[in-house]
User: Fold this.
Amino acid sequence: MFSALELTLILLAAAVFGVVAFRMLHLPPMLGYLLVGVVVGPYGFGIVHENETTNRLAEFGVVFLMFSIGLEFSLPKLSSMRKTVFGLGMAQVLLTLAATMVFGWLTAHLLPQLSNISWRAAFALGGALAMSSTAIVSKLLTERLELDSQHGRQIVGILLFQDLAVVPLLILVPALARNAEDMLAELALAGMKAAVVLVLLLVIGQRLMRSWFHVVVKRRSQELFMLNLLLITLGSAWITEQAGLSLALGAFVAGMLISETEYKHQVEEDIKPFRDVLLGLFFITVGMLLNVRLVQENWWLVLLLLVGPVLLKFSLIAMLTKLFGQSTGVALRTGLALAQAGEFGFVLLNQAGALKLMDPLLIQLILASMVLSMLAAPFIIAKSDAIVLKLSANEWMMQSLTLTQIASRTMSTQKHVLIAGFGRTGQSLAKLLEEEHIPYHALDLDPDRVREAQAAGAHVSFGDAARRESLVAAGIHRAAVLVITYASTPSALKVLHFAHELAPTLPVIVRSHDDSDLDKLREAGAAEVVPEAIEGSLMLASHALVMLGVPLRRVVYRVQAARDERYASLRGYFHGASDAPEDAEHMHVRLHSVTLPDGAKAIGKTLGALKLGDLGAEVTIVRRGKRRIEVMPETVMQPGDIVVLRGASESVVRAEERLLK
Assistant:
């Protein structure tokens, strides 16, 4: 039996190797986690067995995921989605329950070995199959930048109701063995508790959240900010759990309340490490449930239990989404994304097994089919566009019509500015271009924004700039420049790839949050990258210099010189305790000053002999109160010199050691 530390080390090591392998094969890392669970689990090599520790860690992964989703949904936004959540979502759960009970009745008659399925067992099974994987679907939608798309909103709305429906289902399933009076009393009590808790969180919590965050932020402690964030997330989850609701629901409410504050984006960045690591453990525990030998021995039953529910849910959800007024394409994409099983389905299935509502062999077979459906989910969602185009001629016509509309609006336009994204930045750019009588055309994925902007006379079309066909229709071959106005590096890299493929000589200007991805975007073909943080500092500096009496011409020269150097002199900054930890995936360039005391190793040596450049560090020297001295290989280091190092954290640390030790 492994200790908690040994168990954690085994899971981490297996996860690292699994994700590295799947990344090298250009497959979703989620599949790596699932496969790792199969390999190390009790039905694989038997290295790790499911226990309370692994289950709790996995549950925390879903908690932090739901918290992140809550950050994207403010109370007004959730209110505007009530038709989707309580209309479409409720219809999906209820009809899946009914269809599964009919399916169970038919299966009992067609397959004699399963004839002992009662209506109670079918109800429990229907509840389990009605669930879809919030963890898998939400993560994939986020990675594909589809969380705020039309089908993304339908998917998230249905997932939210599924999470809400878990509560009464967890009460109903064990109550099926009791009389109706006890069941109604338990449901009424649970409903009252849920109502009280949600009112406390949404009403009182909303008033307290902003003022409390102000108190914490004024302390100027990153450590305190993180502790407060974890307290709110886990505390809200604990409150809802005590009320008989799910942990995930409390975390979602906490995220939704914080989304109303100005600290939303900082919280989003800080929570990512916890969310991604714990989600990985969740997917590993899901993989541990797959009994490979059982699948081999009963492959035809597992195949039936896999294909039947997946097709049933896909058809049912697509039909309901269509009935609720969505297009065929949105309906099909919604059905494909939610056809798989979900994490809460395992909870309901295990509960049914503990109550002996179903045969243990049948539970294992259903469990295996559910895990396989979750393994297939990333592939289905990745190919959803191609599947929709094949299933729906209308969708093909709609996409063709959209591209035709874009092409018709830009056909007579030459040497125009092609704008990817028509948010605030894109609209500001368009206004300036109009004042200079320069033609432009924008592409945006928000239908409401496009409709309102078109009505106001803006040259914008509904389309995805990250698709080759949209860029061609928007006249990329005739454009003078392409401007990517939203700060999303993954999407920008896709646009750059297609732009370089279609029009290799077209200059592309890209917006980014800071300088961490500047080199990556430049290597991908961006002619200019505009980091918001550095541009903001340039504007602040220029205003300050003008107010201090520096001639405007010199200020303009300074700012332009910094831009001409590709911001080289401004990239990196001195880190302090209030700064967020560096992203391990993108090592930010940083600055660090080192004062050379008497006896330092570098004293008396030349810069050329120290070879700091070989370590990846750039050097600036301040000597005897002067601002800077000319840095040359023959420059001899003296006591009291202040050496300013610029480079990645590891390079700066190694350079400092070479200077001092």
Remarks:
- The radius of gyration is 29 Å.
- The chain has three domains: 4-391, 405-564, 590-660.
- The CA atoms of residues 290 and 368 lie 5 Å apart.
